[in-house]
Amino acid sequence: MADDSATKALIREAYAARHRGDLDALMGFFHPQCRYRLVGGPAVAETFRQPDGLEAVREQMAGLIAAYVFSNVEELGLTVDGDRAILHWRADVACKPSGRSGHFEIVDIFTIKEGKVASVTQFTDTAGIARVSAA
Which of 5, 13, 45, 110 makes a 20 to 30 Å CA pair with 77? Predict the structure, then answer.
């Protein structure tokens, strides 16, 4: 198990890669048996399917990077407890295909395994994401 400061650095560096659109760097932070879940997601949009495994998560992240751009990102809190962490943040999110944007608050729950992100469960306003994503 990593110490709190290593886990915080891992999460912050992974999010920096995501926010700059660097898929290869982002995927370097994920464990081979990783999962990503946006709570309520698949009913909102196909973009938010819930993949398991590194290749499936990579495909999902590639789609998210292609569709959504973050700006004015602000970390509100990051707590680590053993192999679990919670990141509370907010950002302006622009959807490239629709040209719409909105301000979102997000909470991500992580499980860390062998110094990598094994799972992410993300909570945000999925109805708001559907609104900015609508054609």
Answer: 45
What would the pLDDT profile of 76-87 be if each residue is shown by its tens digit? 999 999 999 999
Q: Say what the pLDDT of residue 1 is.
A: 46
Does domain 4-133 fall under CATH 1.10.540.10? My reply is no
Distance CA 67, CA 32 (A): 24
Domain-wise residue ranges, the chain: 4-133
